[in-house]
Amino acid sequence: MTDSAESLLLKIKEQGDLVRKLKAAKESNEKIQEEVSKLLALKAQLNTEDAGPQKFTLKTPKGTRDYNPQQMSIRNDVLQKIITVFKRHGAECIDTPVFELKEVLTGKYGEDSKLIYDLKDQGGEILSLRYDLTVPLARYLAMNKITNLKRYHIAKVYRRDNPAMTRGRYREFYQCDFDIAGAYDPMVPDAECLKVVTEILDTLNIGQYVLKINHRRLLDGMFEACGVPADKFRATCSTVDKLDKSPWDEVRTEMINEKGVTPEAADKIGEYVRLNGGTELAEKLLKDEKLSKTKAAVEGLEGIKLLLEYCALFGIKDKILFDLSLARGLDYYTGVIYEAVLTQPIKIGNEEQTVGSIAGGGRYDNLVGMFDSKHKQVPCVGVSVGVERVFSVLEAKLAAGDIAVRTSDIDVYVASAQKNFLEERIKVCAELWNAGIKTEQSYKKNPKMLNQLQHCEENGIPLAVVLGQSELERGVVKIRNIVSRQEDEVPRDSLVQELKTRISALNKEINGTS
Amino acid sequence: MTDSAESLLLKIKEQGDLVRKLKAAKESNEKIQEEVSKLLALKAQLNTEDAGPQKFTLKTPKGTRDYNPQQMSIRNDVLQKIITVFKRHGAECIDTPVFELKEVLTGKYGEDSKLIYDLKDQGGEILSLRYDLTVPLARYLAMNKITNLKRYHIAKVYRRDNPAMTRGRYREFYQCDFDIAGAYDPMVPDAECLKVVTEILDTLNIGQYVLKINHRRLLDGMFEACGVPADKFRATCSTVDKLDKSPWDEVRTEMINEKGVTPEAADKIGEYVRLNGGTELAEKLLKDEKLSKTKAAVEGLEGIKLLLEYCALFGIKDKILFDLSLARGLDYYTGVIYEAVLTQPIKIGNEEQTVGSIAGGGRYDNLVGMFDSKHKQVPCVGVSVGVERVFSVLEAKLAAGDIAVRTSDIDVYVASAQKNFLEERIKVCAELWNAGIKTEQSYKKNPKMLNQLQHCEENGIPLAVVLGQSELERGVVKIRNIVSRQEDEVPRDSLVQELKTRISALNKEINGTS
């Protein structure tokens, strides 16, 4: 507590004593009230004092951030584009709570489980914040016994990871998920997921990309063929997953020293994981001495071949790369896996920023069954778009002046240069709002004309209605075009219609449509 | 663990022993691999067994729920209508993290603080889930030293309250907030908040309502005039707040027995709080013997008078009721307070549902200062719309068959009655998606015609493209109108253009525009 607060407390005590004394002495009500109001004033002061000064740094929690209006404008624009693609493919929307029973998340994420946020035990259920949108979807499907669903879900997820916020890595971040649940023919929904990713990346227009694909069955078959014991498949797979960040030598060392893979097996793996290509590679590997004898590898390769065939029919084959080094971290994948990577750094102002992986996903046929008491499986395949990296690229472009955004859509500002026109402005605003026109005015009684016009310029408001005594007396109002500064008088009665015509003309100008 | 899982473990152990024996005996690689794959198959089986059967009830956390596609459709529609109103008034959008440093929330909610969700201390910062959107806004303004902002914020908030889910009371629920921050002339932004509420309730079209208004300064002045000691104002105010649910007698008893108000003071309060009306009541009370001598009461009454004047100019005065029993629970209000209440039960099927309070808010001029090291104040006024009650009314109407919703926007289904047409369907889908047409197809290789048409009917898809060998050979495709069942052949080359024309015609039909 501050010194001033302490002295204030003392004053309050003294004043309180005085009031009590007056009351005990049955002094006149007026006199008592007078002292009571002094006491109240002191207490009001204390209420303000009491809270501060701020004892803690004013910040958002580590790894999180606020979105200001510019950032929200970018975010809403990006999300809207993604939703448009999801809806174009007929996906329905669902939502789940931000937290789940802790048990729902247990045993789904392997090593990464340590990154889950738990809620404090305040009596009742033990809860954790969702780590992704995939496990909640599986829980939702199992709980409601749904066997077919094409859904999208756009929401924040939570990971107690080391944040790298300038690169778009947060502890609270958006995922945009598209998943197809249901028992269908092989690779048909899987190929559509890849098509969805290409449509999203094309519409976001953030540079060239490649869609890497691989298959968990092929990875398992490859490990088996190289002599890795089955109980080390998942651990070896996690190590292969590091190949996008570390050179093969380091990955090899980790395999041998930490995962207990023999040097011979590691070297054999090393030969496979440097391979990438298209259908011809899948066909070559189907004839590979070791892989062709491994059931899992053959299954994986046949899957990849079929997927590539459908991708060709979808017209996206030039964007797909079959890459044996792609492994993906999560445990629950069972079939095809994929990842979209931007292939060029993005130019922001005079600097370049590397974005890397921007979407990923795969098939997980056993996850829903983990929630069903009879292990009834619902095969699923899906993709998750990592929009935070897109946001951070666009925000950097905004900061560098490469792009501009408007944070409000106001079309008309109701202004007046004269005093005592607030009442008239209120009436005009109400009329325009009731007509659905996006309208704003100053909250001051007597704002300066210059300030009002400046507000229009700063906020990109195209039109102003300027109210004045002489015009009102003649039954007209002025409409001002903020950019051209031209002013026209229109009859007060036809103001709404006139504004609508002008707004619609301005919108056509902007959109370039007729 | 189930019996089958135990017997599986035994089999795995035996098979493992066999493999080890073969290896020790340096048997041929082929023979070893054969037994290894059997072992792998058993282990794969175990992975599925291992997770279950489900040891816990599959549910969402207490007081929370999933939104299925129908519910999401309703939710998105309601939120979109609200956003349209907020934007019409020029509000910018911001967002804040779902959790805050616990200290940010401390001391802001009075008795309700016990309802805050805390996160577990996993090392690092101590965090709590947000309880409303108002305190995060105040933190945001103070942290960024923003003195003027008109913003909206639509997000979920969290309260460990007793849920009443059928009536739309949840522990995780949406708030839709509109606030105006900045030092302006009295009651101008306050009146706009009321105008915003009327526009929202009118556009949601959920029945007649009244907007109750009161003023914290008037309440304080009233308590003072009735002889309540200043340190009991807030507690007395909380008790008055219960008048919407409890009769006066009960409230009076609580005041006397629990809050230490004298019976005489309580009776005087009782006379005031039964008053409600309009400007004439404010004028009458300004002449009231007791209130007219209390500075706070006079300030509050003058404020109410001015507010009513602006409401008349906004054309919403018939919806406003000045009601001295309105108190509002939260501590941080300092000026005008208001609450929108539906005045009629809503008819759902053959039943009626009472909704009650649906929006509320007020002025809080001291909250931002609590976060500023120099107590720099930013006066604020705002309103929060409680959309969960709207959702639950509309969901009940949906369940009763009073309304219908579509959960996907698909315009075209690509179908085929013939076998081996998947490739052709994929190519047509890609073409339509690339043209921006909302398109779907079956994920089966050879779906039945009847199932495909049924899918269209069930999902309200208006058009189907029907592919067939004979048509393709003639360079045409069939377009089928699902409702009328009429089929027309169109040239394959002009399919996209033809579909766009038909979709646009159908949309005009639905929207009734020309």
Can you offer a commentary on this structure?
- 2 copies of one chain form a homodimer.
- By secondary structure, chain A is an alpha+beta fold.
- Chain A has 4 domains: 3-50, Helix Hairpins, CATH 1.10.287; 65-206 and 392-407, 2-Layer Sandwich (BirA Bifunctional Protein, domain 2), CATH 3.30.930.10; 208-343, BirA Bifunctional Protein, domain 2 (2-Layer Sandwich), CATH 3.30.930.10; 412-511, Anticodon-binding domain (Rossmann fold), CATH 3.40.50.800.
- Chain A contains 17 helices and 18 strands.
- Chain A has helices at residues 3-24, 29-50, 69-88, 102-105, 134-143, 188-204, 216-225, 233-240, 248-258, 263-273, 279-286, 295-314, 387-399, 422-434, 449-458, 469-473, 495-511; strands spanning 92-93, 99-101, 127-129, 149-158, 172-181, 209-215, 276-277, 320-323, 336-342, 346-348, 351-353, 357-363, 380-385, 412-416, 439-441, 463-467, 476-481, 487-491.
- In chain A, the strands form 4 sheets. A 9-stranded mixed β-sheet of chain A has the order 1-4-5-13-12-9-6-8-7.
- In chain A, strand 14 (412-416), helix 14 (422-434) and strand 15 (439-441) form a beta-alpha-beta unit.
- The N and C termini of chain A lie far apart (66 Å).
